[in-house]
Amino acid sequence: MREEIHLTTRPTLSHSSDAVRARELLFVAGILPVDAGGELVGGDDVVAQAEHVFAELGAILEAGGSSFADVVKVTVYLTDAADRPLVNPVRQRAFGAARPASTLVEVTGLAVPGARIEVDAVAALA
Amino acid sequence: MRREYRVEGQAEPISHFTDAVAAGGLLFVSGIVAVDERRELVGGDDVVTQARCVFENMRQVLAAAGCTFADVVKVTLFLTDVADRPLVNPVRQEVFGETRPASTLVEVPALVIPGAKIEVEAVAVLPG
Q1: How much is the ipTM here?
Q2: Interval A87-116: pLDDT, tens
Q3: Which is higher by pLDDT, A19 or A13?
Q4: How many CB pairs under 8 A join A and B?
Q5: Which of chain A's residues have a Cβ under 8 Å away from the Cβ of B82?
Q6: Whole-prediction pTM value?
Q7: Rounded-to-integer distance, Cα A110 and Cα B80, Å
Q8: DSSP state letter for B41
């Protein structure tokens, strides 16, 4: 009842899977704005970072047999809560008509220096 | 289909919560810090010793519901200093072995127990 999803296009920053399927749900790891080599994407631009993060989220959801429309809960971690209005349009584009339950908090740091956003999610299976 | 777990040997929860709750075939484990049964900090200023205590506490909570580390689906780590990540990762590797739960790690300015440098919460799949 537990299956790990590992995308070959994603870096391994720690002892983690990209997502794990359990029962009826897919648990997606926190996604940082990094490329396959673990390098920061988007420079200091939180919108570019967010677009990369949500593109990665879409790819992981698809690999895990889910989609944005199936997402139940997202948690968004920002290093500056004032970035929220900049990130929201990216979320709207990604989710469309679907509105997951959501928590957003400001944190003092993320695992990759320069990263301004990390997003994790729980999704139903499509 | 909801069952609360209060685990013997774990400190009394500091607020209105319990150690873990089972629902929908999953076990939701509360955030765990490095404290003993009397809620005294373990490991002093040493984040590695704290991490070992956290995961030992987690092992006990998981076991109370019939789970092991191999059943863990997701972990969220809260560190007061993100630079401690390379120190904590080997402890994770030790306890999880071949198992790789989905993971989120963030730095926060403070945790509830003074001196605590790491808190970890988890979701696991129940046996059966």
Answers
A1: 0.95
A2: 999 999 999 999 999 999 999 999 999 999
A3: A19
A4: 90
A5: 108-111
A6: 0.96
A7: 11
A8: B
pLDDT band at B128 (very low <50, low <70, confident <90, very high): confident
CB contacts of A75 in chain B (<8 Å) are: 104
Q: CB within 8 A of B33, min separation 6: which ones?
A: B41, B50, B54, B111, B112, B113, B116, B118, B119
**Chain B interface, mutation test: which of A7, A14, A32, A106, most B Cβ atoms within 10 Å?**
A14
Residue A122 backbone dihedrals phi, psi, to 5 degrees:
-120, 135
**Residue B64's closest CA among B123, B2, B10?**
B10
CA distance A92 to chain B (A): 23
